[in-house]
Each structure stands twice: as C-alpha cells, then as structure tokens.
Amino acid sequence: MVGTGVERARHWQYEELPGVDLLRARYVRKEFVRHTHEHFVIAAIAEGLEVFHHSGSDQYAGPGALALVNPDTPHTGRAGVPEGWRYGAVYPAPELVAEIAAETTGLHGTPGFVSPVLDDPYAARLVHQVLRAAEEGNALAADTLLRVAVTRLLRLNGGPLPQREVRTAGSRIAARARAVLEESMAGPPSLERLAADLGASPFALLRAFRDTYGMPPHAWLTDARVRRARRLLDAGTVPAEAAVAVGFTDQSHLSRHFSRIVGVPPGAYQRERKNVQDARPRLLLPSGVWQNRQREQTYAPAEETPAEQDGPAERPTNPAERRPTAGSRTPPSSGTPSA
C-alpha cells in the first residue's frame, strides 16, 4: 500500500501535448476544498483510496479505478484510508476531448463523462503510460496513448453534457452576481451589498448562487481567483504579484488556497511551466523494442497486460475496502477500442 512518508506531487505540462496538464501525486493528509477545473479530470488511482464529493454524494475510487470530473463541476478530494492515496492524472482541454469524441465515437452534443467513477484497470494503466511517455519525452507515445485512453473512457462512460441554460429568476440573478465578482475580483463587494445592487436579499442570492454554480459566492470567488492566478503564472508573473492582482492579501495567502485547489504551491507550479517554455524542440522516435512492448501493452486484452511500475497496485480482496462504483461496464476481455 501507500505507506507512510512525505507527501509529494508534480503538476506539469509536456510541450508535445498542448492543452493537457499532467499530475503525479501521493497525498496522505491533503484535502482539496470544493473547486472546479476548466479542463476534464481523468485521475487513475494507483494505491490507497480517494474520496471526493461530487453531485451531492461522496464517491470512492480505489486501485484500478478512475475519478472522472467534467469541466466546471464542483468537487472535493481527500484520503479515504489512513495511508492516503497515490495517483496519476491527465487534464485534457474540452476542445481536445470534443475532437477525439467526434473522430472516434458516435456521441452528439458536448461530450463528457456520465459517472464520476469508473472501475477499469486497463484504462487506468493507459493513463499511467501517458505520464511515463511524457516524462521520457516520447511525443508519439504520449499523444497516441492519451487519445486511446480518452476514446475508451468515452465509449465506456461517455454521454452528452447537459446544457446549462439561464431560465429562472434565481439563475439569472446568480449569473449577474458572477459577472460582478469576475469584474471586481480584487475588491469584491459584501454579500449584502452585492444582493442589494441586484435587487435581492442576501439569503435569496446565496441560495440562487449555490443552486446554479454548486458553491456559495465566496467559495466560487476563491476558485476563480486561483484560476486567474494560474493564467498569470503561466504568463510569467511572479507569485507575489499574481497574488495581489487577483485579490489575495499576499503570496502566502495565494499559496494556501492554490495548494488546496491545484495540489502544489504556486512556485512549484510556475517552475514546471518555465521548464516547458525553456525546453528545446526535439523529435524523439521510439526504438523498435519500445514499439513492440508498447504495442503489446496497448492492444492486448486487459487481463493479459502486465502491470505498470507506476500503475495500479493489486486490488483489495476485502469488499469493505472498495465501494461498488456506478458505470463499471468494462468488457471482460476487451482490448483497446479501435478508432
């Protein structure tokens, strides 16, 4: 199992996978507050157990399972066992997922995931292989395996995302409040002032905002500030200046919230971005041995695929260690879906 020791995480980008964030992490005490992502979350659990609140209930993802979160969907994250959890994750942009869905599936509308947890050790191994290929600088493998993994997940657990439409008076007020907060991020009004300016009572606005966006205005604002800070850090703004620009009191204030949402401090996050920008373009072609091994691992049936070094550990035999997961529809001997 995960064991004891220091928590560690790496959140980075690979220049040959534009529009995709990558993460390897091992957490024990880490608790992610309610937040959202602009990209999809595809997190493959290798060891331990992650619990995350999603759509009104706690979800459980153990070894061989994937936590799947659609863009702009509020969720949390924490360890479900004392030893914590270890996982690898890819965060593809909505445009990339839509491109893959259009090419390889029959999904209509905006594609997304139906169930937040999918028990599929084979897809989990593919995610870890994407991360390994990116670390090794193998662009051909990383891009190929990412597309294969997303295709498989969409075929097993994909569907059209519901379109969020502003129809009710409450949702219209919530949308107006969100616009105000976006424009005044560094100096937002109080709830009472915001409600009065919109012609609503504080509790009516609070209720409408939570119903529309899944979190109260102050939590949404913190999440939005971290998103904007990420863009500033990506552009080269130093953390201290980014903190003030988005409305945090100082760099330590930014770092506390940034780590609770992104998983790493802003300084570590920016250093990885700088490494990508400084990387020299290069073309790496896989060797014949690597190609043969990768072909066997990618296209062999799941039960015949050898476990990856950083892939899921042996799954627990005690039923109490793993909650049943919805949407587990993996064919017993299916290989990687063809395009």
Please tally the β strands and state the result.
12
- Tell me the strand percentage band: 15-25%
* Strand line-up in the sheet with most strands: 1-2-9-4-7-11
* Helix and strand element order: EEEEEEEEEHEEHHEHHHHHHHH
Indicate the mean pLDDT: 85
What features would you describe in this structure?
- β1 (8-13) and β2 form a beta hairpin.
- The longest helix has 19 residues, at 139-157.
- This protein is an alpha+beta fold and 339 residues long.
- It contains 11 helices and 12 strands.
- It has helices at 94-104, 121-135, 139-157, 169-183, 191-197, 202-213, 217-234, 239-246, 251-261, 266-278, 288-299; strands spanning 8-13, 20-27, 31-35, 41-48, 50-54, 57-61, 65-69, 75-79, 85-92, 111-113, 117-119, 158-160.
- The strands form 3 sheets. It has a 6-stranded antiparallel beta sheet. Strands 3-8-5-6 form a 4-stranded antiparallel beta sheet.
- The protein is 42% helix and 19% strand.
Compact overview of the structure:
The protein is of the alpha+beta class.
Give the topology:
Layout: E1 8-13, E2 20-27, E3 31-35, E4 41-48, E5 50-54, E6 57-61, E7 65-69, E8 75-79, E9 85-92, H1 94-104, E10 111-113, E11 117-119, H2 121-135, H3 139-157, E12 158-160, H4 169-183, H5 191-197, H6 202-213, H7 217-234, H8 239-246, H9 251-261, H10 266-278, H11 288-299
